[in-house]
Structure formats: structure tokens, C-alpha cells
Predict the structure.
Amino acid sequence: MIVDRLIVGHMKVNCYFCINEKTNTGFIVDPGDDDAKICKHIEENGYNITHIILTHGHFDHIMALKKVKDFTGGKIVIHKNDAPLLEDDNLNLLRYVARIKRDYVKEDIIVREETLKTSDFEIEFINTPGHTDGSMCILCGDIMFSGDMLFKGSIGRTDFKPYGDTKKMADSIRRLKEINKDYKVYPGHGEETTLREEIRSNPYFNENIWN
Ligand SMILES: [Zn+2]
Ligand SMILES: [Zn+2]
């Protein structure tokens, strides 16, 4: 499996391509913006995209969704609790940043805590609310896409109403702490890390910070 990254949009979102190198087929995580750049990258590499998976529904992770879907035919996957954000620019925070026109598109597949089998991968979704209620960590092999829930050395904001929730974030972090397996972590912004490294050194994994 290869994980390939493009940094897109003003918010510098990590858009990932997770590809089986034998079949050149796989999925995209968070086509945040710069649709032309994303589509060109797909075309140049000859990727077949079966799914477009969203770590959560904030605008900076979904702005290129419609164009990338039209281009690839990939099925859009989002957690149930973040599906409303795809249609509502107040909920996905776009209204607070800009009044621009964007393309709307709905999800194809709503997920909860479950496993999705694609032609090439088995992908597991765990719901880790706090940044938004439908934030997911996406697990595939030894890789975790953590969205804006977990960053290298930090975590996502929990003050975006009505979906941000500090208590839920604390529980989500406790849940990640329980995972025994080490994962390579690819966050929604910034550089990659590992789950072990975050558990060891990320201040938000220290229980004292939540008391
Ligand atoms: Zn976000
Ligand atoms: Zn973000």
C-alpha cells in the first residue's frame, strides 16, 4: 500500500491517496480543495479511485468533493453524525470564512463504527468525536488517518459549535490510548507521526490536562 499526499487549499489540508500498488486502485481521504490539482494527480498516476472517505465534514476537507467525485466515480463515505455538514455551510464553518459559491454533493455511504471492504482494502472506521461529532479515525493496515482529531503533538479544536465537545474529545483520546497496536498516523493538517509517539509525548494524552 502506498500513501501519497497533496497539500490543498488555504487551510493546507492533507489530501491522501491510499493505493494498492499492484492494482493502482484505492481511495482518497479528504479532497479538501484544489480540485484541478487533485484530478491532475490522479490522472498522471493512473489511479483508480473506488471511494472518497471524509475524516469529518468541515469545509476545508470537502471543497473539492463534487469535482473529484465526478472525475473518479468514487463513492463518498462519511460518518452519520457529520453527514449534515455536507449540505450546511454554517455547520461546516464555510460561512465564517468566506461567502463563496461551492458545489454541493451528498454522501453515497453513511457509516458508523464498521468495516468497509473495497476491492483492494479492508477499512475500519472508529468514531472519535470532539472536534466534530462525526469525526472518524480511518484504519487501514497499519495506517491511521486521524483527520482533525489528532495532530503531531496536538489535537483539533473543540470550540466549534454546535459540534465541538471537549468532554467527548477527552474520551476519544482515552480510546486511542487503549489501542495496543502502533499505527502510522496521517493527520488532516501537518506532518505524519505514530500513535505510540503521540501517546508518549503529546500533552493531550496526559490525563492531567483534562482535569
Ligand atoms: Zn476540522
Ligand atoms: Zn481541517
Q: What stands out?
A: The mean pLDDT is 96. The helical segments are 35-45, 65-72, 94-97, 166-178, 195-201. The pocket of zinc ion (ligand 2) is lined by residues 11, 13, 58, 60-61, 148, 188-189 (CB under 6 Å).
